[in-house]
Write a structure and sequence with these properties.
Layout (H helix, E strand, L loop, with lengths): L5 E8 L11 E5 L4 E8 L7 H6 L15 E9 L8 H12 L4 H4 L7 E9 L1
Parallel strand pairs: 1-3, 4-5
Antiparallel strand pairs: 2-3
């Protein structure tokens, strides 16, 4: 099942400290039902996806943030003694990864509008 409008969103971090609003949004039409949207933030900025989506109105895209579904990927990392690093390093890496910022909070996406799709990765 596809939604009426489908947008593939990429959030890019620039090598500049700040990005002006006029350069923040890039829209590329793929078909009538699909568009590719790239949001660019400076490395000193905290990404605010809902605010940036509001800037899309100038380019003809309208979003009601409370009726938009966001699909996010989630990786679950598990240790394995047979690959890569020693087991203690695997466990340290997994501990640090679990303490990383939650993408929903980091991008300021309304939590009730997020669907997470997960995979399990062995290190």
């Amino acid at each position: 099942m596809l939604h009426e409008k489908n947008i593939i969103l990429t959030v890019h971090t620039s090598d500049r400290p700040r990005v002006p609003d006029l350069q923040r949004v890039a829209v590329e039409p793929i078909s009538d039902d699909f568009k590719r949207l790239t949001l660019t933030f400076g490395y000193m900025e905290t990404p605010n996806v809902p605010r940036a989506l509001g800037l899309c109105r100038k380019q003809g895209l309208k979003f009601d943030i409370m009726s938009t579904s966001f699909f996010l990927g989630r990786r679950s990392v598990v240790p394995t003694a047979r690959q890569g690093m020693p087991l203690w390093q695997d466990k340290l890496f997994i501990f640090l990864m679990r303490n990383a910022a939650n993408p929903t909070d980091f991008f300021r996406i309304p939590p009730g509008r997020v669907v997470e799709l997960g995979t399990q990765v062995s290190v």
